[in-house]
Amino acid sequence: MPVARMLRQVVGQMPGRPACGCWTSAPLARFLGTSPRQIPADANFYSSSFSGTDQPRVLITGGLGQLGVGLANFLRKRFGKDNVILSDIRKPPDHIFHGGPFIYSDILDYKNLREIVVNNRITWLFHYSALLSAIGEANVSLARAVNITGLHNVLDVAAEHNLRLFVPSTIGAFGPTSPRNPTPDICIQRPRTIYGVSKVHAELMGEYYHYRYGLDFRCLRYPGIISADSQPGGGTTDYAVQIFHDAVKNGKFECNLKSSTRLPMMYIDDCLRATLEVMEAPAESLSMRTYNVNAMSFTPEDLAQELLKHIPEFQITYNVDSVRQAIADSWPMNFDDSNARKDWGWKHDFDLPELVTTMLNFHGSDTRVAQAN
Ligand SMILES: NC(=O)C1=CN([C@@H]2O[C@H](COP(=O)(O)OP(=O)(O)OC[C@H]3O[C@@H](n4cnc5c(N)ncnc54)[C@H](O)[C@@H]3O)[C@@H](O)[C@H]2O)C=CC1
Ligand SMILES: CC(=O)[C@H](N)C(=O)O
């Protein structure tokens, strides 16, 4: 029997199947037999759905990392301060605590997550909690729990409460057997880190929930993200953030990747804009639910050369970290994001020269830039 027909028969025997026969619209929890997450068949009665005319009510998980605070600020400008709740398991510094709503949320605590979604009438969820590539290899069981079990909690809450869900994936979702130059959206994905494995799992689970339960799941595979006012959380691309701090402070930098290691990268403003654009894209424009997005690709040597144009005395040395190097050598060198450009009009603003000027200006090296020019 063809698989699709077999599945339709199985679904037909499940409780809660809609009379129309469209097997994508029934909320997941109706099928979870003995799970404490089981919800009544009229669950949609109390789930708050986003009508399209209201402002979304946003929750960001893992919001105190490199990207979350920037995302909150960006979304608050668009949707209003009180409509965007930042959450994490860490204690926020004063300026973040007083900058807008902040709440404790451990994604491993399903009940806590559900309570927050219900009490705050959340309609959009940006799921940023994760352990990144290098720190994940040093804490495999924690990475497995946060990146996989945590994701399951988020998917279930999102499906039960009819949320639009954004989960970032990464260049790290590819591995040594993927085409590396360029790497297309659809190709073999056999990553060799727990981070990469968990992100492929997230892509597949999110897409499965979309096709199976109608969850509005949207996912971008980010390149390495470079930000000026936030610290990276333990990744392989962290060097491309740290180099700016050290260049401005000390005029030199010790790089933990080889000079020739080419990786896709993006400035944070482009990353946050891509994230909002894909969340706002009409569903019918999305031919896929997981897209590569890209801006530029460079090596540590390319970056050092660009920095030298502004800080002529800058020096880079190399002390290779074998774990990070092995990871980087298995990742894409160039990212093919033509589907994102075609489907929802993705276009980056920052290439390497603009990135370096912007980062140096932020770090207060205007005088040196002026002197160099
Ligand atoms: N920063 C980058 O270059 C890239 C990031 N991404 C993805 O974007 C997302 C955000 O990345 P970053 O901000 O850089 O990560 P980060 O490592 O800086 O922050 C992650 C946050 O998750 C929180 N967290 C850990 N365990 C938690 C738990 N049990 N419950 C709730 N929160 C928990 C941490 O406290 C931390 O604040 C991640 O999913 C990451 O995989 C993807 C590609 C590139
Ligand atoms: C590219 C990423 O996902 C992250 N910055 C990492 O290096 O782990």
UniProtKB/TrEMBL annotation:
Span of domain NAD-dependent epimerase/dehydratase: 58-293
Entry-linked Pfam families: Epimerase (PF01370)
A Gene Ontology biological process term: L-threonine catabolic process
EC annotation from Swiss-Prot or TrEMBL: 1.1.1.103
Enzyme type, top EC level: oxidoreductase
Catalysis performed (reactions): L-threonine + NAD(+) = (2S)-2-amino-3-oxobutanoate + NADH + H(+)
GO molecular function: identical protein binding; L-threonine 3-dehydrogenase activity
Primary role: Catalyzes the NAD(+)-dependent oxidation of L-threonine to 2-amino-3-ketobutyrate, mediating L-threonine catabolism.
Family, per entry: Belongs to the NAD(P)-dependent epimerase/dehydratase family.
Protein name: L-threonine 3-dehydrogenase, mitochondrial
Organism: Panthera pardus
